[in-house]
């Protein structure tokens, strides 16, 4: 791009050396500020029309035959690279717009200086588009794609965090909520036990109220942790149904267990725990009947014999309903038909497909028509 140093050393020093220094400066600043490098390389831009990407014959429109489309110089690939980096790394639009406006002004000046021929306008327009605009747009597209990929990754990480929060909420509800309910049942039993002094009865009442308050605070914490769109985990704790019923009996509850011989459904423990916990909270002192068979798990309780220890509106049945749906089963929860006249009987029942059977609703679809909704949780 300059004189031969062996033929014209003076011309080489006056023309080529400054270009080399300018290119070196562009390399130094181009990695961090590609737009600055683009401006520095402006004197080395595609302002000569001796070589081009293509040559076309426009004699039918212009006096000249050989019109260069997208003029190319030795520096053109580097200018294209820094234009690409400008679109890739420059987040604000106005600096790039100002630089491209300056490039356009220089290109218009070059065309006017050479006579303003229409063929020159064609060459200059293709040079500006091919050397500056298209690489910049490609870099901008690449930046947008990377931003979308990063947003997708962040979204996946957020979903993973929400799933973990849902798992923690499920564990807290299954373990702490159940234990607090049993503590309240034990305290209620002490209140009604014969031969207990007034001070002990008062202390037991305070313990029952404190357990109820702790249960309510736990419900609020679970509401903050749990995301309704997330499916609770499907793996229950290690404790089996019989051990769960035994602990409930030890706490003072009246629980009858009827287990049909055969494989126990994987969700049986979760269903029984939810039913016993709800009975302890909302129907203190009521007798509880637990039935477990290979296809069905049901928990029934009678009317409460003392004031309930918790408020309605928790998330236990909502999470259990989702777990049952994912397992291909059906959950019903509500007053028992034969006890509506008595006013307090409640039944939680889950029907599950046998092991190896196909889900009749095709992998946990909608609930069956007429399925009862929960009236308390």
UniProtKB/TrEMBL annotation:
Pfam families: HisKA_3. Gene3D superfamilies: 1.20.5.1930, Histidine kinase-like ATPase, C-terminal domain (3.30.565.10). Residues 355-377 have a biased composition (Basic and acidic residues). GO terms for cellular component: membrane. It catalyses: ATP + protein L-histidine = ADP + protein N-phospho-L-histidine. Its EC number is 2.7.13.3. Keywords: ATP-binding, Kinase, Membrane, Nucleotide-binding, Phosphoprotein, Transferase, Transmembrane, Transmembrane helix, Two-component regulatory system. InterPro entries: HATPase_C_sf, Sensor_HK_TwoCompSys, Sig_transdc_His_kin_sub3_dim/P. PANTHER family: NITRATE/NITRITE SENSOR PROTEIN NARX-RELATED, NITRATE_NITRITE SENSOR PROTEIN NARQ. This is histidine kinase. It comes from Nonomuraea diastatica. The lineage of its organism: Bacteria, Bacillati, Actinomycetota, Actinomycetes, Streptosporangiales.
